[in-house]
Amino acid sequence: MTRKFIPFELERWQSRWEHRVRYNISESGVHPLSVGELLAIGSVDPDELHSIRFGYTQGNGSDELRDAIAALYPDCRRENVITTTGSSEATFIISWALIEPGDEVAVLTPTYLQAWGLAQNLGASVRTFDLEFENSWEPSRESVETAISADTKLVVVTNPNNPTGHILSEETRNVILECAQKTKAWLLVDEVYQGAELNGETTQSFWGSYERVIVTSGLSKAYGLPGLRIGWVVAQPELIEQLWARHDYTVICPTPTSDFLAQVTLANRSAVLSRTREILNTNLPILEQWLNKFSTDLEWLPPQAGAICWVRHPGNPQTPELAEFLRTEHNLLIVPGEHFGKPGFMRLGYGNESGELRAALAALEAGLRERADWSSFVQVAP
Ligand SMILES: Cc1ncc(COP(=O)(O)O)c(C=O)c1O
What is the 3-state secondary structure (H, E, C) of 303-324? Predict the structure, then answer.
C-alpha cells in the first residue's frame, strides 16, 4: 500500500506567501545580514569574494569551515562534522540514514515538524511528548518516559525550541538523555537557535553527553544568514561517513561563496551574535507592549531564545482561518499553530527591523479587531 505523503505545511505556507505579503512576521530569525554588512563585520576586502571561482567545493565542506564548526563543540574534530545545505538538509540526510519502515521515533513538540513529517514519510511511527504551557514549557517526566519506549530508534529534540523559544532545564535534559540511553536510541538535537539567547548565555550543547547524540545546527537563525544555506551535523565519524554518502545524492557540496562567507561568519561569531542579541532585546519589548494590551485574550510566556513568540489565543481555535484572513485582508503573514501541530496558537516572529515590526503588529491588531466574533479585542481601547 502506498503511504500518503505528509507535506511540510509550515514551509509551504511560508515559501508560497512570505515574499508576496506587505508584512511578514512568519519568520523565526532576525533581519538578515547583507553580504556587504557581513564583509564589513569581518573586515574582508570585497575583492576576496569577487575572486572566488564557481567550481565544485569539497563535498562535506572545506577543511577550514569544518575546523571552525568543530571548534564550537568540546572534543570535536573535523571528522565529526559534515556541512549541509541548511540544517534542513542535515535533518533530511540523518532521517534517510537512520529511519526504516516500522521504526519508532519520539519527537518533542511543539516543534518545527520536519523530522516529524519525514519520519512518517519514511514509514516510521511517531510518538510525541509535549512542552507544557502550564509547566513553564517543560515536558513532564512521565510524558518523556512514555514517548521513549524500548523500541524507540530515534529521539528528536529542538533546543532552544521553535516555536516557544524555550530552553530546556538541566533536569529535563537529563531525563531525555537517561531515557534515550536506556533504549540505545539515537538522540537528534536540533540546536539551530543556539546563540540567539536573549540573555547572551549560550545554551549548552547536547554534544558529548552520550555517544549516540547527533547535533544539527547552522547559520540561518542565530547568525541571521538563512540565505547562505549553511548548516551542519556533528556526530561520530562513522555516522558522518554514512551521512556524506546521502549528501552525495542530495546537493553534492556547498557553494564556494557560501563556504567562504560561512568561514567569515564563524571567525567573527561574537560580533554577529551580538547584532542578533541587540535586535532581539530591542524588539521583544515592542512585541510585549503590544501583547500586554490584549492580556485578557492572549496568553504567552516570554521566549528565552530566537525571534519567536508562541501565543495562545484560547478564544480562537481556528488559527488557519485567522491566518488566511490576515493574509488576504491585511497583507500580513503569521504562522498558525496547526503548522506546529497545535490549534489555538499562533507564532509571531519579532526579528524584523523595529519599524517593520511595529507596522506588522498594527496590521495584526486591525485584523483581530475586525473579527470581533473571534475575540474580545474590539472591547479593548486601541
Ligand atoms: C528548528 C528548526 N530547524 C531547522 C530549520 C531549517 O532551517 P535551515 O535549513 O535554514 O537551517 C528551521 C527553520 O525554521 C527550524 O526552525
Answer: CCECCEEEEECCCCCCHHHHHH
Taking only the tens place, the pLDDT of each residue in 62-111 is 999 999 999 999 999 999 999 999 999 999 999 999 999 999 999 999 99
What's the chain's length in residues?
382
191 CA → ligand 1 middle, Å: 9
Closest by Cα among 174, 223, 180 to 72: 223
| pLDDT tens per residue, range 155-214 | 999 999 999 999 999 999 999 999 999 999 999 999 999 999 999 999 999 999 999 999
How far apart CA 27 and CA 186 sit, in angstroms, is: 29
- Go through the domains of the chain in sequence order and give each one's CATH number: 9-34+271-370 (3.90.1150.10), 55-268 (3.40.640.10)
Ligand 1 atom 15 nearest Cα: 112
CB of residue 84 inside a 6 A radius of ligand 1: no
Q: Calculate the CA 203 to chain-centre distance.
A: 14
Compute, in angstroms, the gap from residue 380 CA to the centroid of ligand 1: 36
Atom of ligand 1 at shortest range from CA of 29: 14
Task: Report, as ranges of residue numbers, the positions in the chain whose pLDDT lies below 50.
Answer: 378-382
